[in-house]
Specification:
This protein is an alpha+beta fold. The chain has four domains: 65 residues, no CATH class; 69 residues; 125 residues, Alpha-D-Glucose-1,6-Bisphosphate, Chain A, domain 4 (2-Layer Sandwich), CATH 3.30.530; 61 residues, no CATH class. The chain has ten helices and ten strands. The strands form three sheets. The chain has a six-stranded antiparallel β-sheet, sandwiched between helices. The chain has a two-stranded antiparallel ribbon with strand order 7-8. Helix 7 crosses helix 8. About 4% of the residues have low confidence.
Length: 337
Amino acid sequence: MIGYVDIEQMYVELLNYYGRHSFKPSEILEQEIAKRVSAGMSREEAIANLYREVFGASTQPSEKRGVSLEEALESLMTAKREDYSTLAALIVWLVAILVTVASAGSHQGYGVIQGYAAILVLLALLGLALTVRLQSGKKGKWVWREVLSIEGAGDRWMDVMRQVPKIYQKLALQNVESETIDDKLILRMNLETMVTVRYESGSQTLPADLGPFTVEATFRNIGGTLFVEAVYEGRPPVTYASYAAQAYEQAIAAFRAAVEEAYEATKPKTLVLIDFEKLEQLLASKGVVVTAVRCPYCGGSVQLPKEGDTTKCSYCGTTLRAVDIYKALKEIVKGLE
């Protein structure tokens, strides 16, 4: 089903690279891979080799793309801790000013120095208040990307892409705006959650705005496999970083599930026609011989014909289908087993 493979990520990054330099990126990429395969490499080795040549010595996808989701979400918490460290440093700076002023005042008269001290303390307090205000409303930028793949679904990429928005709307439990541009699907929403604020007198649960969250997904058919390159971006308030991390994880899980569910929804449906001749064979394979059944509507005895896919109850005139009779009998047989 859905896969998360480094080689596939390399392939998509190479495809994007050649797409910036050619109108036929897939043809050029496949030619480059074919050259290396003819030289004795496997397809995977050829892709990794070409990736090294194009992007550098690393055999792994670029650092930005190689970060796991857990590591990327942890970076949100790191940013929050760094902001708190900055705030703590400012408080230490203010305390140092107050100590210096107090020390100077103890050795000199209060005259001019008292005036300078008052100005310094006032400026320090204003700076601290401004910093706290800015920190509380500050928003960071968070970006993470991955490549999903579904074998055998490449020729249905457009149908899958059309299905994803409504399924994602259902799974994300958020108001989602969607936009499609060629092979690209863009999903936008503003995440919200409930946070608990603690006061000296107690606590209160309030709604919190976690900022905008965007999914930009590119759908491609590569050799019959559907590749979905998804780029997730959020702008969370630093204050609510931990809540944003939880919300992002849920939003990404919902997108993955939406892609898979969309794929299942677009699968060709298998049409099975069961007539009474086929019904007899199916029942016989289970060791069951049935010549008559009870009408589910009036209870009258209905003789099963040897051919056709429908029959009528001679008592109430209801039309009975072979497939419905088979389903009912299968449940009975299952119960007996």
